[in-house]
């Protein structure tokens, strides 16, 4: 498996969903190719590049909400959301355990802090994470990117969030055995 690219952020629980969604948007903005409509949003007084796609926005909001809700329910389950990019969609077969290795893995580690007011430290942490994201993307050589083979001209990806009912061990086992999503 590839070496994970990690972004660490300290976020107030009041802004954790919004900031997590913004980070997922920023990563996808830098990695999805093809016909995209760029846009920016202001999150915690930080300008974040996003893709102008309502369906994607709703999907990222759902993933960020699930992630932050699981953090609030049980902090012992882990504090990471993982974004995996594949060269080809992972294959599901009836009789084999065929998995596709991701060519890039982003790990967003969120530390929920008690902050009053909830914006100063969270805004600074989000800004630092976005700067690190741009540095990591720009430090990679172009030959590192695999050819795009999907019909829509984009890399298949998967966002992995630990659900409230499973631990990280179960989650990792599910990721390795099932590899279910190709853009979810």
Number of helices: 4
Helix content: 25-40%
> What fraction of the residues are assigned to beta strands by DSSP?
15-25%
| Low-pLDDT ranges | 177-184
CA gyration radius, whole angstroms: 16 Å
- Assembly form of the protein: single chain
Widest sheet: strand order? Answer: 1-5-4-6
Q: What is the tally of beta strands? A: 6
CATH superfamily: HORMA domain
| The CATH class | Alpha Beta
Span between N and C termini?
A: 20 Å
Average pLDDT metric:
82
CATH architecture: 2-Layer Sandwich
**Biggest sheet features:** 4 strands, mixed
Number of domains: 1
* Class by SSE composition: alpha+beta
CATH topology: Cell Cycle, Spindle Assembly Checkpoint Protein, Chain A
Shape: globular
List the secondary-structure elements in sequence, H or E.
Answer: EHEEHEEHEH
Family: Belongs to the ATG101 family.
InterPro entries: ATG101
Pfam families: ATG101 (PF07855)
Protein name: Autophagy-related protein 101
List keywords for this structure.
four-stranded mixed sheet; single chain; alpha+beta; 4 helices; disordered C terminus; Cell Cycle, Spindle Assembly Checkpoint Protein, Chain A; 36% helix; 184 residues
In short:
The protein is of the alpha+beta class and 184 residues long. The chain has 4 helices and 6 strands, in the order βαββαββαβα.
Descriptive report:
Pfam families: ATG101. This is Autophagy-related protein 101. Keywords: Autophagy. The chain has 184 residues and is of the alpha+beta class. The protein has one domain (5-177): Cell Cycle, Spindle Assembly Checkpoint Protein, Chain A, CATH 3.30.900.10. It has 4 helices and 6 strands; from the N terminus they run βαββαββαβα. It has helices spanning 16-31, 54-73, 120-139, 168-177, and strands spanning 5-12, 38-43, 46-51, 80-85, 104-113, 157-161. The strands form 2 sheets. The chain has a 4-stranded mixed β-sheet with strand order 1-5-4-6. Strands 2-3 form a two-stranded antiparallel ribbon. Helix 1 crosses helix 2 (54-73) and helix 1 (16-31) runs parallel beside helix 3. The protein is globular, with a radius of gyration of 16 Å. The two termini are 20 Å apart. Residues 177-184 have low confidence and may be disordered.
């Amino acid at each position: 498996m590839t070496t994970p690219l990690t972004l660490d952020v300290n976020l107030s629980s009041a802004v954790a969903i919004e900031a997590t969604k913004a980070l997922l948007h920023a990563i996808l903005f830098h990695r999805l190719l093809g016909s995209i409509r760029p846009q920016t949003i202001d999150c915690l007084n930080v300008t974040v590049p996003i893709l102008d796609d309502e369906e994607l926005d709703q999907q990222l909001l759902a993933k960020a909400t699930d992630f932050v809700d699981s953090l609030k329910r049980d902090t012992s389950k882990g504090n990471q959301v993982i974004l995996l990019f594949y060269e080809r969609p992972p294959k599901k077969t009836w009789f084999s355990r065929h998995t596709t290795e991701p060519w890039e893995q982003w790990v967003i580690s969120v530390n929920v802090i008690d902050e009053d007011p909830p914006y100063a430290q969270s805004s600074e942490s989000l800004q630092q994470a976005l700067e690190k994201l741009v540095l990591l993307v720009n430090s990679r050589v172009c030959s590192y990117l695999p050819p795009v083979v999907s019909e829509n001209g984009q890399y298949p990806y998967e966002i992995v969030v630990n659900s409230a009912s499973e631990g990280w061990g179960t989650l990792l086992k599910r990721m390795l055995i099932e590899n279910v999503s190709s853009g979810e």
